[in-house]
Write a structure and sequence with these properties.
Length: 263
């Protein structure tokens, strides 16, 4: 009977902690209510048990220590499970497979990151488009940007962009791209982005994998430092107006995350 009562208490406490933890970490985790409840149960049991072992009284631990241990355990389990879920959702296809599938809400092609095919010169507007696309993926469900691929899904390479580097190699290109994303999106958002290179049909293609962000990623550009929020709408990138940005952010992230992004 006592074991059944303990199990029922753990279930109720775990349910409550899972829902509370999901709300507290809403800007960091994106788990369903059922997933959060399961995390709460596991976290409460593990955390409470660890607290008892630390105090040397696993059979009858102090209630306060058990409660603190359950809360900490729940938060840790929530974060770990959410990270695992994101890794499972992360696109794993290579550049060739992504090119064959075509552009979508989570895949975008860009012929270049700096070079204007018409003027044959470096174009800051094209650089800004790269930042907007990365931000839009981050503010939506994540995605992959392929640089060096034209609209028809054909590899055209990075030679046009490399001519603007001090040394025309892929390492310099990656350094420039990370610096640019850090400047336009912020260092935190730039750090989350994974950048790699693949050879397709004899051409180098830059593969930029962008995870869904736990907070708004705002693009800052121009001498006037204008700030704007971009999201994916189908297979296109869209800038939200102020009222739209506020409504979108309030629905997707906690207001605390929104305030941090605007500092």
């Amino acid at each position: 009977m006592r074991l059944a009562q303990s199990g029922l208490i753990a279930l109720v406490v775990g349910l409550a902690l899972g829902l509370i933890g999901r709300q507290l970490l809403r800007s960091r985790v994106r788990l369903s209510i059922a997933e959060a409840t399961l995390c709460g149960i596991v976290g409460a049991i593990v955390g409470g048990t660890v607290a008892g072992l630390v105090l040397g009284r696993p059979d009858d631990p102090y209630p306060l220590a058990t409660g603190i241990g359950a809360v900490i355990g729940t938060l840790i389990v929530l974060l770990v499970v959410d990270r695992y879920a994101w890794l499972k959702r992360k696109p794993t296809q290579g550049a060739r497979e992504l090119m064959a599938a075509g552009e979508s809400a989570r895949v975008e092609f860009k012929s270049s990151a700096r070079y204007n095919l018409h003027s044959k010169q470096r174009d800051e507007r094209i650089e800004l488009v790269i930042a907007k696309t990365v931000a839009a993926f981050a503010n939506s469900d994540g995605g992959v940007l392929l640089i060096g691929v034209n609209d028809d899904g054909q590899a055209v390479g990075l030679d046009n962009d490399l001519q603007f580097m001090k040394q025309p190699d892929l390492d310099r290109f990656e350094l420039w791209l990370r610096d640019w994303l850090g400047t336009s999106l912020g260092l935190v958002a730039a750090t989350d982005v994974d950048i790699s290179f693949e050879s397709v049909d004899g051409c180098d293609v830059c593969v930029v994998r962008v995870p869904a962000s736990t907070r708004p990623v705002v693009v800052t550009a121009g001498k006037e430092k204008k700030r704007a929020l971009f999201v994916r709408a189908g297979n296109s990138t869209r800038e939200l107006q102020v009222d739209e940005a506020l409504a979108y952010s309030a629905n997707r992230w906690r207001s605390r995350a929104l305030r941090r992004s605007l500092k």
